């Protein structure tokens, strides 16, 4: 009797082991590890899909051959999912998408609206949601993903790291991951921005291994400024200063530089180390307005004009100038958003919604036009903490 | 008639005087039974038979060549006594007596084995050892009816609690200090003639993670070494299965640069990761076994073949990936960290089912295996004591000497899971200055 029960249990267990059939198990050498995906629309309204797949043995090797570190596959399909499966006709390995670093969206699709095509990237279990979404500016997605990059063997890694370092130390762009993007598209009180990617140099030369054999690679990839979107369509681009202004306002500015000419001659450059921005919605007679307070700390980074830093007033002067300069950038960003694009890329609508939900209901449908009229007050408080190693600029005595 | 009775009276008188006074030999005993007499004669005693007496005298005049006390070979230490038990039970009891000069140290002798008549000694501290445990030990020993006992393993298999568990529930050691330490904790040692391996019961899971050297090194070092052993325990148990699970199921959990490096190593390896791991693990087990059996002069040949031919050449030939060799090597080294060899063996055995589970279900399988293992461990008992004590059930005041070891002045009481009486170990005033 007992034997019978054990026998049954063992039989069941063995069946379980065999029937499970190594569900979902894939050996590492069966994976085509995709690091970048480009999507666009073709002229006959099909989806164009470009994947950048790494060639592991070329990347981690003692004896590199002339094969490129990554390969590109391109297919089309009625849907992106179909295009992914169509890829098996070309690629020997199934695309493995968990390690995706960058999703590049083509111009045509960006102008048409990206939301429908984002579904698969959000739905499919294989995607991690930590990849950056970007726009290919003035170039085709395939051309962009074809460029071999110097220094970093995997172009997608180069793009990701560039975006991270731009955000960390320049602030003229920022990385947006898919969660944020979708949340912002769906939010009525905020429109998203997306970073652009550019090719500098000839696209065709960039595809060859010779491109990275030169000390000054003729073709390079560059992170560009931010694209302004209205819901899920790209409607224009911010300038570098406006992009910085946007990052100041939304609190995404980590570190950057502020430079301006001083009264006499030469330049002052200030290294911004830390910013702290807080935006609040205010109501006066049912008229909303936004007030932004920005605290900023920095060092003197470079100084070419005759200012005596040992004096407290000169630091005060620099503080004031930096405040003025930063405020200009923030105002430029708001002006561009209100006048040129009519798109609330700062999330002011959400602030108003939180402050006064009843009022928000009356403007919700037509927020972008109300946004154009919105009054924004900006207050910047700058504090220079350190002067660096010298108190005087290096000058020749006359 | 009278003469006969007088003669009988005389010989009886002679017998008594020989027994009481005239033979200067210790351990005289009377024998009444012919079977008993033969047994004594065959184990080297001198039998004195007197005419017209129904009883015989037996004098313990046993003597044999023995090995002498030598340095331990299987449990070497840096600091601490290096002597090991020998094959002679009298030497072994003497070694214990030398360590514990307490009048309460009891040595109870018995013989087991119809043909071998092996001497067995149960050694414990009267008043410290728990009576229930002692009774159980004696009861289980008395039940044994076997023709031969050649090593303590024979006894261990008869008295252990869980017959079908991969985990040992009887501790054994050939170091007198380790056994004396156990006896002082209130445990019971079983010495068997003919083997240097002495048994100690009850044996809990944590005992197998501890080495007597933990108490000889400074407390902080002892603690860190114990934590290191615990880490090695998990490495030895889970490393290959985690490698299989991560590389065949959960590639998304590997950091990208590592994934690329692992993927490039796997390019061109003809076997699935599981087969690769199984192959290497088996190879290692074979090497280990060969290393134990081989005569010493040939030993170096095995290490050369093992390290160079199997390690390097297998990688160069593209049969296994270098990462797998690293995994197997780390696992192997980790499994040698345990002071108790029998626990190391169980871990090595359990590694294989875990690898199969990992190859079938990935991390899910490993977790299943782990849960089953924890359930099993918690259900085990050793002579009435829960095997996972004092971790499960959690006994707060005994944590002082489990994963960590407090300095000796902090180990105030004996572990309460071994003994409830005579708990005091250190007077709390001993550290006052």
Automatic annotation (TrEMBL), chain A:
State if Coiled coil is listed as a keyword.
Answer: no
* Superkingdom of origin: Bacteria
Please verify whether the record's keywords include ATP-binding. Answer: no
Q: Name one GO cellular component term.
A: membrane
Any idea where this protein resides? Membrane
- Specify the Spore germination GerAC-like C-terminal domain's residue ranges: 226-388
Q: Return the InterPro entries for the record.
A: GerAC_N, Spore_GerAC-like, Spore_GerAC-like_C, Spore_GerAC_C_sf
GO aspect biological process, one term = spore germination
Keyword terms, alphabetized:
Germination, Lipoprotein, Membrane, Palmitate, Signal
Q: Which Pfam families match?
A: Spore_GerAC, Spore_GerAC_N
Q: How does it sit in the membrane?
A: Lipid-anchor
Residue span, Spore germination protein N-terminal domain? 24-196
Protein family membership: Belongs to the GerABKC lipoprotein family.
Q: What is this protein called?
A: Ger(X)C family spore germination protein
Q: Which organism is it from?
A: Halobacillus trueperi
TrEMBL record, chain B:
Annotated compartments: Cell membrane; Membrane
Q: Which residues cross the membrane?
A: 227-249, 323-342, 354-377
Q: Name one GO cellular component term.
A: plasma membrane
The superkingdom of the source organism is: Bacteria
Q: Specify the protein's topology with respect to the membrane.
A: Multi-pass membrane protein
BP term (GO), one: spore germination
The record's InterPro entries line, in alphabetical order, gives: Spore_Ger (IPR004995), UPF0353/GerABKA_families (IPR050768)
Provide this UniProt record's keywords sorted from A to Z. Membrane, Transmembrane, Transmembrane helix
> Which Pfam families does the annotation name?
GerA (PF03323)
Please tell me whether the keyword Transmembrane is annotated for this protein. yes
**PANTHER family attached here?**
LEUCINE ZIPPER PROTEIN 4 (PTHR22550:SF5), SPORE GERMINATION PROTEIN (PTHR22550)
Similarity annotation:
Belongs to the GerABKA family.
Q: What is this protein called?
A: Spore germination protein KA
Q: To which species is this protein native?
A: Halobacillus aidingensis
